[in-house]
Design brief:
Blueprint lengths: L1 H10 L7 E3 L10 E8 L3 E2 L10 H16 L8 E5 L8 H10 L7 E5 L5 H15 L4 E9 L11 H4 L7 H5 L4 H11 L4 H21 L9 E6 L5 E6 L10 H6 L19 E11 H7 L5 E10 L9 H12 L8 E4 L4 H11 L12 H4 L6 H16 L3 E8 L3 E9 L1
Parallel strand pairs: 4-5, 4-6, 11-12
Antiparallel strand pairs: 1-10, 2-9, 2-10, 3-9, 6-9, 7-8, 10-13, 12-13
Helix pairs in contact: 2-3, 4-14, 7-12
């Protein structure tokens, strides 16, 4: 038993799921590749096209499309990992149902996970680590979120969380509302309201331009659903476009009331939209892809998660991005695109400024302020968008990163095939 345990520990080193390095530069047989990826359009929570649809159903649509684009038989899929935040048990039941509805057989395993806003990216890292260790050959990584349904359960009582909350301030800080952490970042790093609103306006303008040019069309799978209209009548519609992008002006943003503090700068127009949606990717090693004659969309190069003070959780990417760049051997200047989740304008701006990022490289197609932030799906959605954008622009390297509630940041490096 001890020899077997030692072998397992060699295959999966300590903190493997937090720091996954998956390949040197160039093309190597053991590269972890993304064969295909697809996402649903992102719909406004409680008001949009998915408000009357179970997330299981649109997650199944994303999985099925990713599998079809890969050109594989579902029977060869060994494992499925689905990120989710808002549902009980991280949506474990819904994840299994979605996989089965997507045509993946019951003989394939399924798990769900919740690392809050990075859950969709964590699902990719989990599948990558499993392939790298030799546990599986082919896997599906996905993320799904219904913010329409999420959050309906009452928050647990303080005593249910811990009887020791009074012992440490950092423990209590984990309970600070996300919007208040945004205000904490803005205050600590002197990010004023006007700067935040200008950033938000840029996100909307970029997203609208991208949508109008058809930049998202190839990555989105149309999903037909039944939805109640304003008159309460149920009609069948096909959802093909993100609902978040809309014409916006700086004057309009300046008129919005602060959402979290009376004298604050964060509001509905410069914070991420609450959203429903799903995304999925098919992954395997380069060797497997070549043996099976599969297309390769991109390569997963590495992944890292870092902890930060919970009261300013939004700064997480400023520490996760350097960590993953060091791990993979890339410099900041070698990255062509940063898909930086815009939880709030304040925290996105801090990360950009702290890292000295070229703003032209950050969210060239807009970010979560304009497109929406379906919590468990965001990481997978950003990866799908990044890989399609790299293919379309013939750029080579990109980073996906986001902050994480309770004080963390996650980041991953991808390259175009």
């Amino acid at each position: 038993m001890s020899a077997r345990l030692a072998t397992m520990m060699e295959a999966v080193p300590e903190r493997a799921m937090n720091n996954v390095q998956c390949g040197a530069r160039g093309k190597n047989a053991d590269d972890i590749v993304i064969v295909s990826g697809a996402r649903t359009a992102l719909a406004r929570a409680r008001k949009g096209a998915f408000k009357d649809t179970a997330p299981t159903d649109y997650c199944a649509a994303a999985m099925k499309e990713a599998i079809a684009r890969a050109g594989i038989k579902p029977e060869i899929i060994d494992d499925v990992v689905v990120g989710n935040v808002g549902m009980s048990g991280a949506g474990a039941i819904q994840a299994r149902l979605a996989a089965l509805l997507a045509g993946i057989p019951e003989t394939s395993s399924v798990m769900s996970l919740n690392r809050q806003c990075s859950s969709g990216l964590q699902s990719i890292a989990h599948i990558a680590a499993a392939i790298k260790s030799g546990y599986i050959k082919v896997g599906v990584a996905a993320g799904m979120e219904s913010m329409t349904l999420g959050g309906k359960s009452p928050n647990p009582k303080m005593s249910e969380l811990s009887g020791r909350l009074g012992e440490k301030q950092v423990v209590r800080d984990c309970l600070i509302p996300m919007g208040v952490t945004s205000e904490n970042v803005a205050k600590k790093y002197n990010i004023d309201r006007l700067t935040q609103d200008k950033f938000a306006l840029n996100s909307y303008n970029r997203a609208l331009k991208a949508q109008e040019s058809g930049a998202f069309d190839k990555e989105i799978v149309p999903v037909s659903v039944k939805c109640k209209n304003a008159e309460g009548k149920t009609e069948k519609i096909t959802v093909t476009k993100d609902e978040g992008p809309r014409p916006t002006t700086l004057e309009g943003l300046q008129k919005l009331k602060p959402a979290f503090m009376a004298d604050g700068g964060s509001h509905a127009g410069n914070s991420s939209q609450v959203t429903d949606g799903a995304a999925a990717v098919v992954m395997c090693s380069r060797k497997t892809a070549e043996e099976m004659g599969l297309p390769i969309l991109g390569v997963f190069r590495g992944f890292s998660v870092k902890g930060v003070p919970p009261k300013i959780m939004g700064v997480g990417p400023a520490f996760a991005i350097p960590a993953v760049l060091e791990q993979t051997g890339y410099s900041k200047d070698e990255i062509d695109v940063f898909e930086l989740n815009e939880a709030f304008a304040s925290q996105a701006l801090y990360c950009i400024n702290h890292l000295g990022l070229d703003t032209d490289k950050v969210n060239p197609l807009g970010g979560a302020i304009a497109l929406g932030h379906p919590l468990g799906a965001t990481g997978t959605r950003c990866a799908v968008t990044l890989l399609h954008h790299l293919q379309a622009t013939k750029q080579n390297t990109g980073v996906v990163s986001m902050c994480i509630g309770t004080g963390m940041g996650a980041a991953a490096v991808f390259t175009r095939e």
